Amino acid sequence: MALLLRSRLEAHRTRTVERATLQLQALVDQMPTADSALPERLRFLHALPLPSKWELERELAQRFLALGVVKSALAIFERLEMWEEAVRCWQATEQREQARTVVRDLLEGRRAEAAAVLERGRATAVRHQAALDAAREAKLWCLLGELEPDRAREHFERAWAASGETSGRAMRSLGGYFFARDEFAGAARCLRRAVAINPLLSRSWFILGCACMREEDWEGAREAFARCVKLDDQDAESWNNLASVYLRMDRVPGRITEIDEDGEQPPPEAGRTTAVPFENKTLAFRALKQGLKAHYENWRMWQNYALVALDVGELTEACRALGRVVEERAAKVGAECVDVDVLDRLVDAATREDADQLQRRVEDLFVRVLLPRVSAPRVFRARARFLAAQGLLAEALEAHLAAYRAGTAAQIELGETDVERWREGVREVEDVVGVLVNFGPRVEGSKWRLQARSIVRTFMGRTKDFEDEPEWAQLVEQLEDLKKE
User: Fold this and answer.
1) Which residues, 6+ apart, have CB-to-CB distance to 329 below 8 Å?
2) At what angle do helices 299-312 and 315-333 cross, to 10 degrees?
3) What is the pLDDT of residues 121-171, one digit of tens each?
């Protein structure tokens, strides 16, 4: 008995699950059958509540199936006449025809499950026995629907009818059938019936929430995902979806303030949008925060968390979230992992008065996370703005120069033919020269004029093929101005 308890305790650990299975198999093999007389065995009936041999064999077969040892599990299920589990094994081994034959035999009465035979042998009420038979028939029709995809809907509906509209499995299967075919209204209708029958199955609530989202039924989606996280508070995906639903609920009309790409204000009818109430943003922020506790490595959730945190004014949390995204993705995608818009907003907030705590967090973000991993012009420029606001002009000037070295102008080589890339480089040269002219005189010991002339000359020397372009004259004029000074 002690070995059985130990094997059950170790069955849920990755390192010991195989040992626990072998221990259970040893128990089954060593269980005495005829070496003791019946009176002797009955003496210890109440002292040792050891399960029967076939119960241990069933548990062993289920362990085998969980480990992927399908053939060994199938042999035990066939011997015990546990046909539903045997059908799952045949499905796993691609023996669908054998599985269909067995299911149809069970439906037509040519075979019977051992559990069904035992139930019929007990003294139970006729009404209760009829309910059990209806539930068993509905289960078999669901199995047949999974085995025959072409007639799946027909079999699932037959299961629902056979159960007297009480089979939660039939509605779950039918809801999954509709969802897989993008019939989300039908999926939601079936899954609502399923969760009304079995309200403790979180997977049904999750698919129901997804179907409601596709139908833009935000209240229904909110209820479904809320039930998911109540059943399992470690379900990070449900927390994330719940936050997404909050950001789409109860929107109120608003106005777009951005201008279009041509620099013109959009017409009034094109400027209509919707604004999310602040209360919903706060709820979304809390949902994402809870979900990240269960899925700390999910960079997409961290990215969403950063955006929502900015909207609700949790700037230190937004700073932490941006750092987590960079830590998770910088090695794979480089500078693309940085949301520079979020970074710019954090820097703008940190440069205001009474933002000492945020300044420390932004400084840590730059020094510990961004600069060791990312080399991007906009990151260096944001760093320069942050330093300049604190009066550290020498460090800000170095950051601007680092942004120039990481930009297009410094990477253009002799023989470049892309005129648009060259024009972008001209703008970068003009920007960095302007920074040197503004900051250089205020930095003690800075050779800013020499640096500016060197930058312009080097760029012009590498791009002589563009002398006929109008922007070339601007470079010449800029160089002459630097010489005069």
Assistant:
1) 299, 336, 337
2) 150
3) 665 667 777 888 888 899 999 999 999 999 999 999 999 999 999 999 999
